[in-house]
Amino acid sequence: xxxxxxxxxxxxxxxxxxxxxxxxxxxxxxxxxxxxxxxxxxxxxxxxxxxxxxxxxxxxxxxxxxxxxxxxxxxxxxxxxxxxxxxxxxxxxxxxxxxxxxxxxxxxxxxxxxxxxxxxxxxxxxxxxxxxxxxxxxxxxxxxxxxxxxxxxxxxxxxxxxxxxxxxxxxxxxxxxxxxxxxxxxxxxxxxxxxxxxxxxxxxxxxxxxxxxxxxxxxxxxxxxxxxxxxxxxxxxxxxxxxxxxxxxxxxxxxxxxxxxxxxxxxxxxxxxxxxxxxxxxxxxxxxxxxxxxxxxxxxxxxxxxxxxxxxxxxxxxxxxxxxxxxxxxxxxxxxxxxxxxxxxxxxxxxxxxxxxxxxxxxxxxxxxxxxxxxxxxxxxxxxxxxxxxxxxxxxxxxxxxxxxxxxxxxxxxxxxxxxxxxxxxxxx
Length: 429
What we know:
- The protein is of the alpha+beta class and 429 residues long.
- It is 25% helix and 28% strand.
- The protein has helices at residues 2-26, 291-324, 326-329, 335-347, 368-397; strands at 32-34, 40-45, 51-58, 67-74, 86-91, 96-101, 103-104, 113-114, 116-120, 135-144, 150-158, 163-164, 170-174, 180-185, 192-199, 205-210, 228-232, 235-241, 249-256, 279-287.
- It is elongated, with a radius of gyration of 55 Å.
């Protein structure tokens, strides 16, 4: 029994010794390549062979460093690329970024494969730069599960014009698999800007405004997850307030849709293989007034128009009050004018019956034109009687008896000088 156990152990040891060399021969030995920027690298990979590249650069404390990675697959289109794609993984100190080659943006059998993919690595913002060393490194791992050899190219480059300036137009070209994003920082004294993009073609794209953070959503499937966005064909504009971005900066992201159905309901044809779908826009950021100034302008306009209405209302109230109480607002005549008028009234022998020609009462038996003649006749008769009475009184004073004066000729009533209206009533026949 013991000899059998020893025999089994020896056989197991020989078997393990025989397996180890075979296993070690099948393991893929991968060397890390120290790569340089702005240089194109090419390699062939398969299941047992992968490529790893290491890039090193120095991070500046007063400037944002942006790196763009571009990969391209050179493979036979007849091969099954969906089942065994090439996987690209970029490992940074605090995050990772990955994609596949070819890249399928529409999940259908008729979707177009994109063999060229280019994307920006998420830069370090100003708040995190002092916490990390100045020398930064990242690795690019390229691998596949395909047994057949696949050829690809890789290139890393620093973006020189990653920052956008106010009032300076910038032309940007991008494809569905090659999105673009740039950084804008608010200058001192600027609280509001207008991000405006224009294009000559009508391809459907998305312009997104995102905060300075990682990850940056710059693909067709996730560009709408963060910040403000607007679909566009020829024009797009978004107003940005500084108070909405505590860092005083933001990213402007451009993504081209693989189909135009997001922007239009018209039926479109699918792009044929080999035809690159691209779009070029002109980006310009302009300063505008802040929302507080908009509100103050609206309040001032409303106040101006309201003052006009208030003045018109006061004028209407005063005019209505004057017309309703006209006697209160009339200035009386001076005393001298009243005395002259009283003396003139005393000098006149008698006042007419109708001093106001417009005063008419119902039932008068003559018109106004005949009233004037009647008043003249009555005045003449009163003067004659007054002169006769005066001469009789003078004769009485000369020695004649006062009793000779007929009392019927003199009217002692106090209301002789007051106006009277004569009314005619119907008399039955």
